[in-house]
Amino acid sequence: MPLIPEEPQIHESAQGPRVSPATGRTAPTPRPVPGPRPAAPPRPGRPGPVRPMPPVQRTPRDTAVAKPGPSAPVAPTAAPTPQIQLIPASAEGALDAAEEAVDLLLDSGRAPGEVLVITTGEPHPWAAHELSFGEAAYWAQHDAGDDVFYADASAVGRAASRPVVVVAVNGGSDATAATALPLALGRAGTLLIVCGNPQQINSVLGAGV
């Protein structure tokens, strides 16, 4: 009888089967494991890593707060000189000329409370009428400042300043006009209108009026 070859017995290994490389093929060389990459140099135009600066030790002189020095004094602003207009008129016609000037002022847009009228002779009829009710009521209307106010030259010192002052030199002594005109100029904010004798007025306020 022919002999039947026995089948080879395969012994399992705990470590698993070994695999031999095929003949004629070289086993692949293992690649090296890449390590940490070196830091890339900074690009031109871009700053590199900023290192923290050590704290600066400041001396009391460095931390002292500068105190402001004394400020220069501010020069007071001079008040603008009001414009002066002269309306030639006789003593008898000075009050009428002043009334016409007031009408022109109101027609041009001036508010009634911006006008003060002063007389050197006879008081204006409105002032005489209002004073008949007592000085308290009369000056209350002045303080209200919502209408044209008429005052005698002797009351100019009590009257408040207004943008426009109209003076009617309708009589009175030269001393009265000499006192009232400078006071009226001081009460006028932007415009002083004087109705009367030009020679008398120029002698008081100056030839440049």
Helix content: 25-40%
Computed over alpha carbons, the radius of gyration is 54 Å
Question: How can the largest sheet be summarized?
Answer: 5 strands, parallel
Q: Spatial order of the strands in the main sheet?
A: 1-5-4-2-3
Shape: globular
Count of helical regions: 6
- For the terminal residues, how far apart are their CA atoms? 166 Å
Total beta strand runs? 5
Supply the helix-strand structural class: alpha/beta
**Average pLDDT number:** 76
Strand content: 5-15%
**Helix-strand sequence:** HEHEHHEEHEH
Instruction: List segments where confidence is low: pLDDT < 50 over at least 5 consecutive residues.
Output: 10-17, 19-24, 32-51, 58-66
Short structural description:
This protein is of the alpha/beta class and 209 residues long. It has helices at 60-63, 94-107, 125-131, 135-144, 174-187, 198-205; strands at 83-88, 115-119, 149-152, 162-168, 188-196. The termini are far apart.
Report what the structure shows.
The chain is α/β, with parallel strands linked by helices. Helix content is 27%, strand content 15%. It has six helices and five strands, in the order αβαβααββαβα. It has helices at residues 60-63, 94-107, 125-131, 135-144, 174-187, 198-205; strands at residues 83-88, 115-119, 149-152, 162-168, 188-196. A five-stranded parallel beta sheet has the order 1-5-4-2-3, sandwiched between helices. Helix 5 packs across helix 6. The longest helix has 14 residues, at 94-107. It is globular. Residues 10-17, 19-24, 32-51 and 58-66 have low confidence and may be disordered.
